[in-house]
Amino acid sequence: MLEQDIKKILISQDEITEAAKKLGAQLTKDYEGKNPILVGILKGSIPFMAELVKYIDTHLEMDFMMVSSYHGGTVSSGVINIKQDVTQDVKGRHIVFVEDIIDTGQTLKSLRDMFTAREAASVKIVTMLDKPEGRTVEIEADYTCFTIPNEFVVGYGLDYNENYRNLPYVGVLKEEVYSK
């Protein structure tokens, strides 16, 4: 039923799993003995973060933040609204933000600056998708699975008006769905 709204599948579930395995192995090496806090950015990061942590073979903690800049549209408003903050003190800790997509970069730049000010030992960014054409601020992910074109994508955590997060792949949403 949801597939009828998808123009094309951009990244398959198998491709995401393989990318998560490779990234998990890299994070295992990079964070061995450091007990990082992986901070998932709700709600979109959940499927990717759940896949990724299965392949990280070192001690880690998980926490979550709910941050919004889209407010129901297809373009970031530029206004960052923190609805839920992390539950633990990050001073002296290694923070790894886990995100579904970096588009404008405004949210993650704000979060990186905030956690640097909170005196985290390090702040790194992991993203499933990077859309560099959408960037409005200077920021790059430290770990990226896929670089994608400037198209409106949904699935595997990414949504349009809270729908399509449950698709098992990343697909391009048909324009007529969101231009109504």
Helix content: 10-25%
As residue ranges, the low-confidence spans are none
**Proportion of residues in β-strands:** 25-35%
> What name does CATH use for the topology?
Rossmann fold
Number of helices: 4
Q: What structural class do you assign from the helix and strand content?
A: alpha/beta
- Largest sheet geometry: 6 strands, mixed
Side by side, the strands of the main sheet go 4-3-2-5-6-7
Overall average pLDDT: 94
Any overview of this molecule?
The structure is a single chain. The chain is an alpha/beta fold and 180 residues long. The chain has a single domain (12-67, 78-147), classed as Rossmann fold (3-Layer(aba) Sandwich), CATH 3.40.50. It is built from four helices and nine strands, in the order βαβαβββαββββα. α2 (46-53) links the parallel β2 and β3. α1 packs across α2 (46-53). The longest helix is centred in the N-terminal third of the chain and has 19 residues, at 13-31. It is globular and about 50 Å long. The protein starts with 5 loop residues before the first strand and ends with a helix. Pathway: Purine metabolism; IMP biosynthesis via salvage pathway; IMP from hypoxanthine: step 1/1; Purine metabolism; GMP biosynthesis via salvage pathway; GMP from guanine: step 1/1. It holds the Pfam family Pribosyltran.
